[in-house]
Amino acid sequence: MENVTSYVTPEKLMAYWEKALPSFINIAVGLAILVIGLWIAKRIGNVVRKNIVKAPNIDDTLANFLGSIAKYTLTVIVVVAAVTKMGIEASSLVAMLGAATLAIGLALQGTLGNVAAGVMLMLFRPYKIGDYVGVAGEEGIVHDINIFTTVLTSLDNIKIIIANGEAWGSTIQNYTSMGVRRVDVDYGIHYDDDIDKAIKIMKDVSAAHPSVLTKPDTPWAKVVKLNDSSVDIQNRVWCQADDYWDVMFDLNKSIKEAFDKNGITIPYPHQVEIDG
């Protein structure tokens, strides 16, 4: 049998290498463009955000959004440049995308919807970075808004990522945009206790709290329900939105202690067992 190595000569290997070398170089350069370009796109996005936020009348929310637009736009340019350098003609790439238009459109339908919803969020500004909101059934402080998602941080420091399309299509509750919030808490007292005395204690304790406001209204307390084993009195006070939780927790403790000192009891639930 004829030796096959006779067909593979150093000259032929050199010819193959010389022919393939430009393709390898183009692929290597294309990968370099991709890696370096993506890094530059990210850096430019951050630079755009930092410079825009310095402009007057522009807050972090809009700056982050415009920065993300710059980043993703440059990312698309870098990917196209890298693919073209690797030997795929731009016209061929366009033709391939054109042939797959229907499939790509279906695949990106949700993504494009998120982009459109992100633009609507920027135009109407139902919330901004730093607001405490309820969005799509989740609650937290707005950490970031980009062209695809809204990022919240919960009170126990959990990162929550919500697609902009879902955020825009849901009910949005902004707990901080009005500046002040009302704290409503119900306290149940025994039926034999003095209701007027309990109401006065609740109002006095509330008024003494340094974070409780007198506008838009002074502390308010009235009977709201007659339960099976308690008379429920609701306490309402106003405070700055940032003080909401502190005021609620402080008043729960202070009012309970004041009730104990003045003989006002909070009854336990009663269960009656009947022997057959």
Low-confidence stretches: none
Strand content: 15-25%
Question: Mean pLDDT, as a whole number?
Answer: 84
- Shape verdict: elongated
Q: What fraction, in percent, of the residue positions are helical? A: 40-55%
Quickly count the helices.
8
Q: Taking strands numbered 1, 2, ... along the chain, how are they ordered across the largest sheet?
A: 4-3-2-1-5
Describe this entry's structure for a reader.
It is a single chain. The protein is α+β, with helices and mostly antiparallel strands. It has three domains: 10-99, Orthogonal Bundle (Helix Hairpins); 128-174, Roll (SH3 type barrels), CATH 2.30.30.60; 180-261, 2-Layer Sandwich (Alpha-Beta Plaits), CATH 3.30.70. 50% of the residues lie in helices and 19% in strands. The chain has eight helices and eight strands. It has helices at residues 10-52, 60-85, 90-99, 101-107, 109-124, 164-168, 195-208, 244-261; strands at 132-135, 138-145, 149-153, 159-163, 172-174, 180-189, 220-226, 231-240. A five-stranded antiparallel beta sheet has the order 4-3-2-1-5. A hairpin with a 4-residue loop joins strand 7 (220-226) and strand 8 (231-240). Helix 1 packs antiparallel against helix 2 (60-85) and helix 7 (195-208) crosses helix 8. The mean pLDDT is 84.
